[in-house]
Amino acid sequence: MSNFIAGKYRQQREYKSFTPSFVNCPFVWENPQIDLLLERAARLLGELNAYAVLRPDVNFSIPMSVAKEATYSNQIEGTKTELDEAILPQREISPERQDDWQEVQNYIEAVNFAIAKLSELPLCIRLLREAHKILLSGVRGQNKAPGEIRKSQNWIGGSSPSDAFFVPPSAEELPDLLSDLEKFWHNQSLQIPELIKIAITHYQFETIHPFLDGNGRCGRLLIVLQLIDAQLLNKPTFYISTFFKKNKVSYYDSLSMVRKSNDLEQWITFFLNGIVETAQDGIKTFKGILELQQEYDTNILTLGSRAKNAQKLLRFMYATPIVNVRSVEKELGISFSSANRLLKSLTELEILRETTDHSRNRLFVLEKYLNLFRS
To answer: At 17, phi and psi to the nearest 5?
Structure first.
């Protein structure tokens, strides 16, 4: 990578756009830290994946992993929705926060849609376009050609390309650049570790900026798709946007440094550190879930005949940790009064906490469990 040239600037009337070099080619790195990080990241991803494969009792929690990724990926773009809000039904969201809430819901839908489609389609630009269409459906950016590769110039920062922080390649260059990126994904002769491919892909995708809007979210969604497509993960139990959000300035600076100084290795190092930290957090969360499940199962034995329904409710709440009486009534198929008594019993056991924050109705929160994802 010491010979890597990130690309070149092209004069476009009153501004210069940046055309990245093709990436479907061999890469060799010199920094030994990359090898150490690769080994560590692969080991931790394997351990994280084992929880989803070998412990089906944690599968109920996968929607929370997706919700966390969606929440933080959107926060990077300026939305204000917090994780607690993201898992609430729309009727509980105040009118002024509904737009942000919907963007997070779109991200969740796009992740689930794209992962399901991977069983029918190979990883490809077509799949990303379909996911992008869902991302921008009915929200900010809905008038910026959802699901379509841009046909005009976009830019990052500033009021126009002439005073922008960064101007991606012109629309005319996108077909060749995106074709090269697809070939890179599926070129087995390159013999590049998948995590290196994923790191390079994220840099290249964000540099190409193929859509008029939503490129950051789509690029981060692509990371999860590549991990699953490469069979490094079986399920979406990974939320690297948490790391990017926490290190937002370094995240953008590291991507920019590749273009400014051709230093791809520093980006790969940053990215792999993110993989390591995120996998560690995921493993810690799953361990916490298993401990809580044991604690909950022990406590609900004291409920006697209501223990069976309590177990069903807890499984439901691993995916939806905030409920009201009506949702429990519907989910368990029991009467309103029975649902109310069950929630009261679980509150007395301190498994649930009753709250009316930001709500017109009483809500019941699986507090200790939700805290595992808040941290």
So the answer is: -100, 160
Averaged pLDDT of the chain: 94
Burial track 287-320 (b if 16+ CB lie within 10 A, e otherwise) = ebbeebbeebeeebeebeebeebbebbbebbbeb
Asked if residues 264 and 258 have their Cβ atoms less than 8 Å apart, the reply is yes
C-alpha dist (Å) from residue 82 to 33, 73, 79, 225, 233: 35, 11, 9, 24, 26
Domain ranges of the chain: 7-285, 288-374
Residue 20 forms beta bridges with which residues? 7
Q: What's at 215, amino acid-wise?
A: N
7-285, CATH topology level: Fic-like fold (1.10.3290)
Question: pLDDT, tens digit, for every residue of 188-225?
Answer: 999 999 999 999 999 999 999 999 999 999 999 999 99
CATH 3.40.50.720 fits 288-374, yes or no: no
Instruction: Using the predicted structure, report yes or no on whether residue 56 has a pLDDT greater than 80.
Output: no
Where b means 16+ CB within 10 Å and e means fewer, 5-40 reads ebbeeeeeeebebbbbeebeeebebeeeebeebbeb
CA 260 to chain centre: 27
Instruction: Judge whether 7-285 and 288-374 match in fold.
Output: no
